[in-house]
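#random but structural
TW: two for the price of one
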Amino acid sequence: MATTNFKGQPVRLIGEFIQVGTVAPDFGLVKTDLSTFSLKDLSGKNVVLNIFPSLDTAVCATSVRKFNKLAASLPDTIVLAISKDLPFAHARFCTTEGIEHVIPLSDFRISDFDENYGVCMADGPLAGLLARAVVIIGKDGRVAYTELVPEITQEPDYDKALEVLK
């Protein structure tokens, strides 16, 4: 079982954090129009999963803004912003912030995404929400990069993630 930290306190995650080299499990997450979005829809593309607890926190909002500018400009790359926020919150945030190059997705419905990717917080004040992580899936459908951010209140290492895409 993987762990992260929230304000210096250990937080256990349900399942094992996904590993580089494994085939990325498909998922069905909810778009802002309430339709289902599947990873298989992006076959042949590089896919950045920007996973975070909630858009209503400064660090999570910052990560969506930065990935919108950085990774979204790379060829054959799609950026997914994934949290358990409701699709309505994703739509409001993206409209207000002018986010146009990221696909916001909600894991609010019952799915196995959080356990298959090992990012569901099992305990701590944010139990049930997604841990902060970046997973990059290559065009071949295999995980090419992972970062389970060691402290929920910190941003991911954008430069390291983008190196994999260059």
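TW: number two ↓
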Amino acid sequence: MTERRPRKDAIRNRAAVLAAADALFARCEHPEEVTMADIATAAGVGKGTLFRAFGDRTGLIRALYEARLEPVRTTVEEGPPPLGPATPPLQRVPALLDAILCFKLDNRHLALALEQTGADSPYRTEHYERWHALLRDLLQRIPGPADSGFTAHALLAATRADLVEYLAGEQRTPREELRRQLADFTAGVLGTKERPGPDAEG
């Protein structure tokens, strides 16, 4: 009985910290503006609580990112088409990339903060390796791309948070236009892009 209360407190504190960090990253102009002290104050906990629960700022950002990504990952792993595992590769690849893009658009500053944390390569993060492996395996089942590993990297590069932030934030490209551009790019890579018919005028 005596062990349950600290466990409940820890769960409550973790939820408060993630909610506070989520709100701060959503409102910030630049991800580096959000500090551990800011998050602790907003959550109503001490900085020591943050470091004990998450290790450091990178660990906290990663935990928040994974929590936000969980519904998408669940749909990809268990859901229906076009994201679920029963979808044919030619339809699933563009659907996956569109889902990643939409997630980055909805979580621009958080995704950018994760890509900018620490000295680790963004290509070695767990979520990136997971997306890359899935796309690589799907591309291996599609005739066309000679190097599925490189092609998966190239497709994912079009959804990098810094590019999304530049296009959506600085250039103010509309969301649907970005989705259309990514779909066209993906179709070109996969060889499924429609070409003008013989009667089309130039």
